Amino acid sequence: MKARIKWVDNAMFVAESGSGHAVVIDGPPDGGGRNMGMRPMEMLLMGTGACSAYDVLLILRKGRHAVTDCVCEVSAERADAVPAVFTQIHLHFIVTGHDLKESAVERAVQLSAEKYCSASIMLGKTARLSHDFEIIEAQGGRHDQA
Predict the structure, then answer these.
(1) CATH number, span 1-38
(2) Domain 40-137, classified CATH 3.40.50.720, yes or no
(3) Is 4 exposed, middle or buried (0-12, 13-18, 19+ CB in 10 A)?
(4) Are residues 55 and 117 in contact, defined by beta-carbon separation less than 8 angstroms?
(5) PANTHER family from the xrefs (predicted)?
């Protein structure tokens, strides 16, 4: 896996992934930036949420559960001192579907946290991670998503 990060000006960079996708990274105005993009630590947090949400969705769909939506809300706290590493990260999953079983969603979240999500497992070496979830019954008829 590779990435290329090129300085544009002040605190702005353009990061390009090995797969050819690009994103602007910038700092706040009080840090020399123009607030034109996400902060690096925000990207790290969002990547962790996306990695785990992908796992949860994939596990549930492989189990032929009728998932219609999956949202991961991530909140974090950082150390007050430099380096301002994450000290606590909480991932809250909102899984919507038809007749979803609590045990299946709990298992998917647990498997992601303990086995599959490389990002959260890596960050768990320095931060305290926690997870929870809620299930929302989807409206309308059942459409099998598997």
Answers:
(1) 2.20.25
(2) no
(3) exposed
(4) yes
(5) PROTEIN YHFA
